[in-house]
Design goal:
Elements (H helix, E strand, L loop, with lengths): L6 H14 L6 H12 L1 H7 L2 H9 L1 H11 L1 H12 L6 H22 L1 H8 L2 H22 L11 H8 L2 H11 L9 H11 L4 H28 L7 H28 L3 H19 L1
Helix pairs in contact: 1-2, 1-14, 2-3, 2-9, 4-13, 5-13, 5-14, 6-7, 7-10, 7-11, 7-13, 9-12, 9-15, 11-12, 12-13, 13-14
């Protein structure tokens, strides 16, 4: 079956990926639900197995944007790691990120076919989006009266102080829930960081860092498959979609960094609950 991928579809898919990847509202959930809501040729477009490959391949644009946005931090982290300065916060943060990335990578590879089959179901995405809203709201309620004093203003030191290797592993397993369309990887990571005593700003900071290797790995894993799939020859739209995803992600990061300095997860939680519930009614009855 020939996969038709127009420039308009590439731009819209890139915008969806870039805007929703780091907002705690699930990019994959929106990638499933938006075409289903639009219907017609868009619904048919999203039902192709190649559509998932395209949606994940566009993560490359988001990964590049994330690295650029946090380039100074990554330079410090990578320098400490490559020079094996084990006592420096940068090296220890790298190890936390590595531990948090391995579980989701392994689970994604082992259960790839299972998640692929469940990806294209709007009702499933709607249910998990509703659950995502409950996770965000729960994190806010459980931490609303908690005041944890941090001994430093250095974000890397604060992350190392509050998150152990074992907890990073738990976060990695928790991130695997985001393989279900509707659960936000960023939302799960940030919620756990808040529960561990990080401020919203620092929890978001850790979630941004942890998102990069997962997003990059997912895109690089899927890109070779596109060369042999139904998208062969349609690299123009794919490139445009990747550029759009890059720009949208970069702007989203800047907006969210400012947002979480003073604002909470509640608006995103209520959004997920509302859209999830309406979509459950739409596609379940």
């Amino acid at each position: 079956m020939i996969f038709h991928f127009s420039y308009i579809q590439a731009i819209v898919t890139g915008l969806l990926q870039g805007i929703t990847e780091l907002f705690p509202v699930s990019s994959l959930g929106h990638t499933v639900l938006v075409p289903a809501w639009i219907g017609g040729s868009w619904a048919v477009f999203s039902e192709s197995p190649t559509y998932l490959l395209v949606a994940i391949a566009l993560h490359l644009g988001s990964a590049i944007a994330l690295f650029i946005a946090f380039a100074p931090r990554w330079i410090v982290i990578l320098r400490s790691t490559l020079t094996l300065k084990k006592n420096e916060p940068g090296f220890r943060v790298f190890m936390l990120l590595l531990i948090g990335t391995i579980p989701v990578g392994l689970i994604g590879i082992v259960f790839n076919d299972f998640f692929l089959k469940n990806f294209q179901k709007p009702l499933s995405a709607a249910i998990f989006l509703f659950i995502n809203g409950l996770i965000l709201l729960g994190a806010e309620r459980l931490t609303s009266r908690r005041h944890v004093h941090l001994t430093t203003s250095d974000p890397d030191v604060a992350i190392v102080e509050r998150i152990s290797n074992g907890q990073a592993l738990v976060i990695g397993v928790g991130q695997s829930a985001a393989l279900f369309a509707g659960i936000s990887r960023f939302g799960v990571t940030m919620s756990f960081g808040m529960l561990r005593g990080l401020s919203r700003s620092l929890a978001a900071d850790f979630a941004f860092l942890l998102s990069f290797p997962v997003i990059l790995g997912a895109s690089l894993f899927k890109l070779p498959k596109l060369a042999h799939g139904g998208l062969s020859g349609l690299y123009g739209p794919l490139l445009v979609g990747t550029v759009v995803a890059f720009l949208a992600t970069f702007i989203s990061v800047k907006v969210l960094i400012k947002w979480f300095k003073t604002q909470s997860l509640r608006p995103f939680a209520f959004y997920c609950l509302l859209i999830g519930l309406i979509s459950i009614i739409k596609f379940g009855f």
